[in-house]
Design goal:
With 455 residues, this protein is an alpha/beta fold. The chain folds into two domains: 139 residues, Aspartate Aminotransferase, domain 1 (Alpha-Beta Complex); 274 residues, Type I PLP-dependent aspartate aminotransferase-like (Major domain) (Aspartate Aminotransferase, domain 2, 3-Layer(aba) Sandwich). Helix content is 35%, strand content 16%. The strands form three sheets. A seven-stranded mixed sheet has the order 4-10-9-8-7-5-6, sandwiched between helices. Strands 1-2-3-13 form a four-stranded mixed sheet. The protein is globular. It binds pyridoxal-5'-phosphate.
Length: 455
């Protein structure tokens, strides 16, 4: 029998578990927060301490914790048939039904779905789909993928090569060839030093120049998160995505929307490009499709692209496959999860609570180290700075962001940080009181750290 005392769990964790983004200094001195249960927006650790899960774990527990219905959907499917392949020649009921449902609730130009088990696999699939689409069109040189600095698309080799947060590269280089990066519309820290309304990044001119410089005949696709997530919750200016769409059309470049975070209601729309009435060619999804109750991801594929794949002759199938593509248990859970999102009106609720969250955070602008507040729906961030006027950042050695994170954790709210940017994306079911708590605790935590820094 394994000793499950807390001290032993911490020792076992340190000995045997390599964590994602592993760092021995990543845990507090008394070990990681080991969660054992959750209900709604609240999670509980091994000590019995409760927290508000202000990031829905990893932006993904959209319907909140502890949903018995989802457990029952999984149990029911396991008792029918736990696994049935979707490889050519076979299919299973939940995968067929879910593919149909996703086509119905996503963009009107979508036609088909290929399932994966997570976000990085979805983006890999999207890149390979784009390349194969152009080869089918007799344009075999269209292979490059353009992404944006500060983007996060996952860490498998292709996804890492598209990921624009450069701390993910050095330990694993060389990156895959054929990936090119452009500036993001990160207006608070514009790479060109421009102001909103006067910036070639916001109008996608910068993207167009890159396509022209590389040669449009070499570009397969452009990938973007509608609202950048891990990079610091960066929503675009309103003109950005309509202009991106025009540029992609002009140069016959497929537009892949990475909606791994923004899908399934997170921004107050079922899918986020709907905010700007823009239609992508491919949508990568994962996380919220099952509210993380079980791993699942995939790509939604627009009609012309799907038809190209569907029209391949029988002796030349599309040579892309994962054993767990369309896993029946994951698809059954996804169907029930989407039913809950629709039945409880969670997309509209996320829009309402998101507006309250961002309004609340804006009031923190008066604190001496709050530089920027931004977000869309239930995705929000607060960027802390040493000097508000010049936007000068704190030296990384001061660990301002991690200190605010720890102060929030001590007060019972789990946020996330990217450097000195504090990120939030609570479950879509959150109440007004819980939104206010997230804001108030963040304010107190920032004030505590500002005081230590003698502001
Ligand atoms: C926008 C985006 N794309 C892709 C991924 C990668 O997903 P996964 O970790 O499931 O591979 C993430 C993960 O956070 C993400 O936020």
């Amino acid at each position: 029998m394994i000793d499950v005392s807390v001290e032993n769990l911490v020792a076992l964790d340190q000995a045997h578990l390599i964590h994602p983004l592993h760092s021995t200094s990543g845990h507090a001195a008394n070990g990681p927060v080991i969660l054992v249960s959750g209900q709604g927006v609240i999670v509980r650790d091994v000590h019995g301490k409760e927290y508000i899960d202000a990031l829905s774990q990893l932006w993904n527990v959209n319907v909140g914790h502890g949903r018995r219905e989802l457990a029952e959907a999984a149990a029911e499917q396991i008792s029918q048939i736990a696994f049935a392949s979707n490889y050519s020649g076979q299919a299973n009921l939940p995968a067929i039904r879910l593919a149909r449902k996703l086509v119905e609730i996503s963009y009107p130009n979508m036609q088909a779905v290929f399932f994966t088990s997570g976000g990085a696999e979805s983006n890999e699939s999207a890149f390979k789909l784009a390349r194969s689409y152009w080869k089918i069109q007799n344009r075999p040189d269209k292979v490059k993928i353009i992404s944006r600095r500060w983007a996060y698309h996952g860490v498998t080799t292709g996804a890492m090569s598209a990921t624009g947060m450069n701390t993910y590269w050095p330990q694993f280089e060389p990156r895959a060839p054929g990936f090119v990066q452009v500036a993001p519309p990160y207006c608070y820290r514009c790479e060109l030093g421009k102001t909103p309304g006067h910036c070639p990044i916001d109008t996608a001119e910068d993207l167009e120049q890159t396509i022209l410089r590389e040669g449009p005949e070499t570009i397969a696709a452009f990938i973007a998160e509608p609202v950048m997530g891990a990079g610091g919750v960066i929503p675009p200016p309103p003109e950005y995505f309509p202009r991106v769409r025009e540029v992609c059309d002009r140069h016959q470049v497929l537009f892949i929307a990475d909606e791994v975070i923004t899908g399934f209601g997170r921004t107050g729309k079922m899918f986020a490009l709907d905010h700007w009435k823009v239609l992508p060619d491919v949508v990568s999804f994962a996380k919220g499709v099952t509210s993380a109750y079980i791993p699942l991801g995939g790509i939604l594929i627009s009609k012309p692209v799907a038809e190209a794949i569907q029209s391949l002759p029988p002796d030349q199938p599309w040579m892309h496959a994962y054993t767990y593509s369309g896993h029946p248990v994951a698809c059954a859970v996804a169907l029930k999860n989407i039913e809950i999102i629709e039945r409880e009106g969670l997309v509209a609720h996320a829009a309402e609570m998101g507006a309250r969250l961002i309004k609340g955070l804006e009031a923190l602008q008066s604190l001496p180290i709050v530089g920027d507040v931004r977000g869309l729906g239930l995705m929000a961030a607060v960027e802390l700075v040493k000097d508000k006027a010049s936007r000068e950042a704190f030296p990384a050695s001061l660990k301002v962001g991690p200190r605010v994170l720890a102060a929030g954790r001590a007060r019972g709210v789990l946020y996330r940080n990217r450097g000195d940017v504090l990120e939030m994306a609570p479950p879509l079911i959150i109440s007004e009181n819980q939104v206010d708590l997230i804001v108030n605790v963040l304010g107190e935590s920032i004030q505590e750290v500002a005081k230590q820094l003698e502001y």
